[in-house]
Amino acid sequence: MIKVSIITLGCKVNSYESDAMAGLLRSRGFEVVPEGEKADIFIVNTCSVTNIADRKSRQMISRCLKLDSDAPVIVTGCWSQREPDAAMALPGVRAVVGNNEKSRIADIVAEIVDGEGPVCCVGDIMKATSFDYMSAVSEGRTRAFLKIQDGCNRFCTYCAIPYARGRIRSRTPESVRLELEKLNDLGFVEVVLTGIHLTDYGKDLGGADLTDVLDCLEGLDNIKRLRFGSLEPHGMTDKLISRIASDCRVCRQFHLSLQSGSTSVLERMRRGYTADEYADVVDSIRSAYGREADRVAITTDIIAGFVGETYAEHMETMDFMRRIGFARVHVFPYSRRSGTAADKLPGQLTNNEKAERAKELIALGHELEYGFLKSFIGRDEKVLIESKQKDGLYFGFTDSYARVLSLYGEPNELKDVRIKSITEDKNGELSLLSDNCRRDTLEQGL
Fold it and tell me: Over the chain, what is the mean pLDDT?
């Protein structure tokens, strides 16, 4: 049996598509082996969100050749979509597959096995008008991912992703329902909706929106939780917020992309909202939950050191983080991307300046996360247990995506626990401890 290894870089959308490709390959009789094992064919699903991601994608292709120098490599994903010629020119690469052609992966692997190639199957993604339907079941996971949308029409000045993913394309509500039925029948407790620009879902379908996706849950009793991936503030309408807050299965964690807390920086980014407008959306979400507002987690992404950012603008972002009280913040130093509008703007900061500002943002984010988690102490929470750690403790997440460690539990179990304290591991990751945990079972306690 031909062994195929899929290596995935980047976002949850890429992870979903890798799982879907694995399913297509298994259905054709190929054996999909874990990443890091030797294989007859390697597939590298690349990322292009930053220059570092581009470099890691190329390095991963080289790493495959170290495992087996004779094994052909197939490259797909955002980096190869943007730079197919560069991908095809790398040693060992026998095929390059576009983002909207991943559903053809089994045919392409079969061609490589038959000795055909090289194969370049990369179309003009900006002309793609149809959603590339694939079904994915994540083996060994307790949370299932469901991709319902692809592409982005926003064209923020710093972002290369629209050029790698094309314009918005949505899975029909009927198809969403069918996929949810499969996941429900398989016993998944939590489903995470993913997409490149989730809040634009349905704009290409004649008026559908995320409320139609929520309606697809009706009658599916095994699915207890529905979680959204990354959301955009300008898509959080009063209608959507009200519908979300009224559905007890929707997780109270909203990853609401920010990128900067300075309105002048947001204008240069072409984000389409001001800092105050973002804050208004957060206020609307929290108000919709009434007395439960303090259990709502607002998480976000922030870019450090965008083009022309003054230190005063950086401090505006720091102040805005405190104003919102984020539960978690992912910080990325600005990465200059060729072909984007920001690449041509004056006032590029040095790497040292970006790194220093990122360091300050990360430190504040850690402080805010600790403050959010502290509010859980003494509370009773439902935790979806995911797996067992090496130290013998089980870990899982509350619906507001707070990580909890417990001495007891089973994967895919919704367990009632009382939160006792907070702990921090050697990598700086914060977790909550349930009341059945002993502090001495952990490497480091706070």
Answer: 92
187 Rama sector, left if φ>0, alpha if ψ -120 to 50, beta otherwise: left
What's the pTM value of the predicted model, to 2 decimals?
0.92
Q: In terms of Cα–Cα distance, which of 196, 128, 186, 194 is closest to 160?
A: 196
User: What span, in angstroms and rounded, lies between the C-alpha atoms of 67 and 89?
Assistant: 20
CA–CA separation, 243 and 250 (whole Å): 10
CA-closest candidate to residue 204, choices 165, 176, 245, 169 = 169
Does residue 446 fall inside a structural domain?
Answer: no
Same domain for 102 and 167: no
For the stretch 336-384, pLDDT in tens is 998 899 999 999 999 999 999 999 999 999 999 999 999 999 999 999 9
Tokens of 398: 């509350």
Domain span holding position 218: 143-371
Among candidate residues 371, 399, 418, the one where a domain is terminated? 371
* pLDDT band of 409, cuts 50, 70, 90: confident
Distances 230 to 21, 27, 253 between C-alpha atoms, Å: 23, 31, 10
As given in the structure block, the two tokens for residue 321 are: 């983080």
Would you give the end-to-end CA distance of the chain in angstroms? Answer: 51
**Cα–Cα distance for residue pair 232/214, rounded to 1 Å:** 18
Cα angle for residues 88, 95, 3 (degrees, 5° grid): 130
* Closest C-alpha among 207, 218, 208 to residue 181: 218
The CATH number of the domain holding residue 393 is 2.40.50
The token duo for 96 is 């390059």
- Shared domain check, 361 and 221: yes
pLDDT digits (tens, 9 = 90+) for 251-270: 999 999 999 999 999 999 99
84 and 163, same structural domain?
no
Please tell me whether residues 85 and 147 are part of one structural domain.
no
Say if residue 147 is in the same domain as residue 290. Answer: yes
Q: What is the per-residue pLDDT for 162?
A: 92
Confidence of residue 446 (pLDDT cuts 50, 70, 90): very low
Q: Say which CATH number the domain at 29 has.
A: 3.40.50.12160
Which of left, alpha, beta for 392 (phi over 0: left; psi -120 to 50: alpha)? left
Question: Which of 90, 123, 156 is a domain's end point?
Answer: 123
Degrees (nearest 5) of the Cα angle 212, 18, 145? Answer: 30
Q: What is the pLDDT of residue 441?
A: 44
- How many C-beta neighbours within 10 Å does residue 351 have? 11
Count Cβ atoms below 10 Å from residue 378 Cβ, excluding itself.
Answer: 10
Do 225 and 295 lie in one domain? The reply is yes
Type of residue found at 115: G
pLDDT in tens, 139-169: 557 889 999 999 999 899 999 999 999 999 9
Q: Are residues 107 and 162 in the same domain?
A: no
